[in-house]
């Protein structure tokens, strides 16, 4: 076939490739027979005085079949499929999560005095890899200890651990800071409460971190470590009490006050163990306004202020106050008040804050005694 003005073109179709002039010329040069090729179309054309050749492969009548194991084809009535080695298969049968029997919480009256606080255990240097660390445990209420033998529900005290990493130099990408950069992180352990906690922090844990950062920022002498940072990480190993009972009574929000007080106290002990200079030893204290008459919360005779409150020991908690106090300097670095105060007494807010300061002073004496006992003997 000839193209007008553009040269000539020769087309070979089918299995006649071996009989084409090009195949014969190649075979003549090599001194052998033309090589058998697959079916297709071979075109040769001349364009602008030059010879060009193209080849198009056509599918054969019997295409190659892929392995049956890759396609999942049934062979001998058995389905063969590729195994997924990265998938963790569960049990073949269905399983149901265990359902525990719910028991009504046994509310026990408060056996401590109104100005009495619970004892605590403190130990420093529990994490050798950290710059400073401290472990603190607060005993459960006395009434709950006595009722454990008669009840299946168990109320434990609060357990916290704090680690301090630093001071250490900031990364090069961080902006210049002439002061020490403080970073606080408060997290519940997944097994700390009855309801399992998630991996990510919720709003309550972020609030605790903000309050802890405010309490420690006014204590650390930050200008002694320019271009440095320190991380304070507090992990709540066990909650203060049964969260289900507090949730049923509507007192779950008051538990955060005791948790924040413990976080402030254990973080101060960890900072002292790390050797970071502070203006004073800061400790937390909690006081609450409780009412013995749950029906009438405005009764002035039924209102009282107690230190270190526990939700299961009181019928109704109206307000609570948590402070971070410096005893030697008589200063407050953080103040958190929640609840509704009675309008009958305008000085009730001041009284509540004064009792919280009294609770922090009691914790300060206990922490100072523990730190002195943990010091190595002088040579």
UniProtKB/TrEMBL annotation:
InterPro entries named among the record's database cross-references: ExoRNase_PH_dom1, PNPase/RNase_PH_dom_sf, Ribosomal_Su5_D2-typ_SF, RNase_PH
Gene3D superfamilies: GHMP Kinase, N-terminal domain
Cytoplasm keyword on record: yes
Cellular localization per UniProt: Cytoplasm; Nucleus
Gene Ontology, cellular component aspect: cytoplasmic exosome (RNase complex); nuclear exosome (RNase complex); nucleolus
Highest rank taxon of the organism: Eukaryota
Sorted UniProt keywords: Cytoplasm, Exosome, Nucleus, RNA-binding, rRNA processing
Molecular functions per Gene Ontology: RNA binding
Any one Gene Ontology BP term: nuclear mRNA surveillance
Residues in Exoribonuclease phosphorolytic domain copies: 117-276
Compositional bias ranges of the Polar residues kind: 7-25, 33-42
Region (Disordered): 1-42
PANTHER family assigned to the protein according to its UniProt record, in alphabetical order: EXOSOME COMPLEX COMPONENT, EXOSOME COMPLEX COMPONENT MTR3
Family: Belongs to the RNase PH family.
Stated name of the protein: 3' exoribonuclease
């Amino acid at each position: 076939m000839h193209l007008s003005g553009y040269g000539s073109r020769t087309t070979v179709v089918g299995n006649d490739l071996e009989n084409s002039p090009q195949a014969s010329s190649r075979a003549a040069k090599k001194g052998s027979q033309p090589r058998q090729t697959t079916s297709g179309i071979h075109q040769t054309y001349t364009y602008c005085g030059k010879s060009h050749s193209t080849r198009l492969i056509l599918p054969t009548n019997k295409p190659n079949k892929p392995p049956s194991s890759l396609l999942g084809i049934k062979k001998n009535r058995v389905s063969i499929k590729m195994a997924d080695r990265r998938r963790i298969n569960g049990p073949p049968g269905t399983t149901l999560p265990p359902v525990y029997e719910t028991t009504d919480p046994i509310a026990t009256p408060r056996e401590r005095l109104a100005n009495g606080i619970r004892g605590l255990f403190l130990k420093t240097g529990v994490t050798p890899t950290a710059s400073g660390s401290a472990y603190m445990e607060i005993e459960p209420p006395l009434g709950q200890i006595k009722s454990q033998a008669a009840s299946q529900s168990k109320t434990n005290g609060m357990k916290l651990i704090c680690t301090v990493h630093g001071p250490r130099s900031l990364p090069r990408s961080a902006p210049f800071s002439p002061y020490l950069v403080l970073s606080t992180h408060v997290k519940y352990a997944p097994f700390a409460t009855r309801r399992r906690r998630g991996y990510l922090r919720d709003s309550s844990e972020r609030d605790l971190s903000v309050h802890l950062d405010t309490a420690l920022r006014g204590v650390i002498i930050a200008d002694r470590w320019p271009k440095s940072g320190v991380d304070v990480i507090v992990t709540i190993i066990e909650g203060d009490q049964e969260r289900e009972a507090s949730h049923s009574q509507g007192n779950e929000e008051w538990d955060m006050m005791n948790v924040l007080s413990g976080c402030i106290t254990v973080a101060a002990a960890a900072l002292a163990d790390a050797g970071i200079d502070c203006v004073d030893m800061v400790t937390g204290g909690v006081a609450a306004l409780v009412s013995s008459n749950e029906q009438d919360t405005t009764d002035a005779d039924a209102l009282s202020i107690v230190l270190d409150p526990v939700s299961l020991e009181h019928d109704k908690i109206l307000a609570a106050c948590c402070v971070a106090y410096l005893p030697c300097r008589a200063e407050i670095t953080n103040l958190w008040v929640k609840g509704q105060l009675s309008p009958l007494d305008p000085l009730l807010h001041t009284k509540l804050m004064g009792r919280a300061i009294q609770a922090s002073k009691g914790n300060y004496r206990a922490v100072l005694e523990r730190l002195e006992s943990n010091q190595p003997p002088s040579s």
